[in-house]
Amino acid sequence: MAHGDNVRQAVRASFVFDCLDMPAAAAKHNVPEATARRWKYAAKEMGDDWDKARGAQMLAGGGIEEVSRQTLALVVLQVQATLQTINETADMPPAVKVQMLASLSDSYLKLSKVATKLMPETTQLATAMDVLQRLVKFIRDKYPQHAGSLAEVLHPFGEEVSKAYG
């Protein structure tokens, strides 16, 4: 079945702008994946690199923050897995454990520093949420008689914070 140019453009838009993977972009427009891949390859041969366009769109459209979040989450998982391996491996020499921990710590700190720069909204939201948690603890510890009033406004205000920073 032949597909018109508008369908090809729609598949490209789904891949580039919606960041769907190729199978999903093709399925969304009822096009065989092989056909969509052929279009992508032919476009690249003509100077329209869908992957580069997608990367530029992610950077321009704020996608870098999402990519940074995902990367940070993956690193945290790797940190946890490495710590578990260190703890569960009884015959690992202590010097190797210390070296692994030092390397892990250094990598995590460097990534956190970069993430702070790449994810300003996430950093602001984390700070705002920390302030709210500190306020709740402060009220609970110093002014427990006002806890009910705080609880009444905290949830709707939390939504406002999320809108502003998240």
Which structural traits does this protein have?
166 residues, 8 helices, Phage_D3112_Orf24, flat, 3 domains, mainly alpha
Number of helices: 8
Q: How much of the sequence is in beta strands?
A: under 5%
CA gyration radius, whole angstroms: 24 Å
**Percent in helix:** over 70%
- Describe the main β-sheet briefly: none
- Give start-end ranges of low-pLDDT stretches: none
**What general outline do the C-alpha atoms trace?**
flat
| Count of separate structural domains | 3
Structural class by secondary-structure content:
mainly alpha
Termini separation comes to 45 Å
Please provide the ordered H/E string of secondary-structure elements.
HHHHHHHH
Count of DSSP strands: 0
Average predicted confidence as pLDDT: 80
Structure, described:
Helix 1 crosses helix 2. The longest helix has 26 residues, at 63-88. The protein is flat, with a radius of gyration of 24 Å. It is mainly α. The protein has helices at 5-16, 22-28, 33-45, 50-60, 63-88, 94-118, 120-142, 147-165. It folds into three domains: 5-60, no CATH class; 64-118; 121-165. It comes from Chitinimonas viridis. InterPro entries: Phage_D3112_Orf24. This is DUF1804 family protein. It holds the Pfam family DUF1804.
